[in-house]
Amino acid sequence: MSTVMPMLYSVWDSDIAYSFRKSRVAVISTLVLIAMFLAAVFAPYLAPQNPFDIAELSLFDSELPPAWSEGGNPAYVLGTDTQARDVLSSIMYGMRISLLVGFASVILAAVLGVTLGLLGGFLGGIVDAVLMRIADVLLSFPPILVALLINGVLRGAMPRAAQADSALIVLILSIGLTNWVQYARTVRGSTMVERRKEYVEAARTLGTGSVAIMMRHILPNVLGPVLVIATINLGMAVLTEATLSFLGVGMPPTQPSLGTLIQIGNEFLFSGIWWVVVFPAVALAVLVLAVNLLGDWLRDALNPKLR
Q1: How far apart are CA 268 and CA 51, in angstroms?
Q2: Has residue 276 got a pLDDT over 70?
Q3: CA angle 200-202-204, nearest 5°?
Q4: Which of 84, 86, 109, 174 could form a disulfide with 180 if both were Cys (CB 3.0 to 4.6 A apart)?
């Protein structure tokens, strides 16, 4: 306890913490993200109903407008859809899938990109040339097209009966294998600078192996930009997942994400049931906006030229 309190105080008194406290945008974005994250994680306990439990649904409550509209029911704050599912509960459960895909794909992309970037920047030669040419090819196409291609290849390699059950893993792989390039190029450039510094030469002189030099000495010094890229890519990953689900190649209706909810609600938009698509779309927009704003602040906070 005697060592924890000074450590917490030093973190709270650091330059980044001071910048965070002074930035209203960063504070508000963080609070919004925490609220949405908690709502998603604890959806089974906080949601008014389980929208995917048939026993809790009643068709007499279908297509109810939001509670403040004429004909609304206070029990369904954001209304219900055509199958009597509570829209608020559907959003909370949908965010669980969206955030899971976002975090998992970002971790996959970061681990793969950082590893390949370290290898390319430290080893150089043919390894670096091959990795960068692959990266150049991937950057020649829009990320959503690459994700669609990888998604189609992975789905085609699986039996049709297993495609629905493996949709989550396929989405994570599709998005993660699409976004590793940014990490690899950033880490490669930083590694090429760091490997020429004196502390790396000293480690070589002491007989330290290449893997140990990369992991113990170079990696900690190149993680700053990686953290910024990961924060911004989280929003892009959630948006990419929503796009794939909206196009019908993402999560199935039995395991809906925010993108799936928007796709389902879009079919009834011109029938006057606007709340089924509007509220999931607003939730997605707020989630991505909060992540991007926090990423922008983090990029500025970690830039020594702006301090």
Answers
A1: 18
A2: yes
A3: 70
A4: 109
3-class state of residue 43 by DSSP: helix
3-class secondary structure, 49: coil
The pLDDT of residue 2 is above 50: no
- Whole-number Å distance between alpha carbons of 6 and 108: 34
Query: Residue 254 has which token pair?
Result: 């039995």
Residue 81 per-residue DSSP state: -
Walk me through the domains of the chain, giving residue ranges and CATH numbers.
4-306 (1.10.3720.10)
Rg (CA), the chain: 23
- Answer yes or no: are the C-beta atoms of 269 and 145 closer than 8 Å: no
Phi, psi dihedral angles at 157 (to 5 degrees): -85, -5
Residue with tokens 């009834």: 268
**DSSP β-bridge partners for residue 86:** 80
Q: Whole-prediction pTM value?
A: 0.85
* Entry field: residues in the chain: 307
Report the alpha-carbon distance of residue 120 to residue 281 in Å, rounded.
40
Q: Could you tell me which residues come within 8 angstroms of residue 18 by beta carbon, excluding any fewer than 6 positions away?
A: none
Q: For residue 226, what are its two tokens?
A: 């990686």
- Predicted confidence (pLDDT) per residue in 115-149, tens digit: 998 888 888 788 888 888 888 888 888 888 888 88
Helices (H) and strands (E) in the chain, counts: 13, 0
CA–CA distance, 70 with 271 (Å, rounded to integer): 17
Q: Which ranges of 195-218 would DSSP assign to H, the alpha helix?
A: 198-205, 210-212
The encoded tokens of residue 224 equal 């700053």
The answer, yes or no, to whether residue 306 has pLDDT greater than 60, is no
Identify the pLDDT of residue 3.
52
Rounded to whole angstroms, how far apart are CA atoms 227 and 174? 21
Q: Do residues 101 and 91 touch, judged by C-beta distance below 8 A?
A: no
Return d(Cα 2, Cα 193) in angstroms, integer: 39
Amino acid, res. 266: N
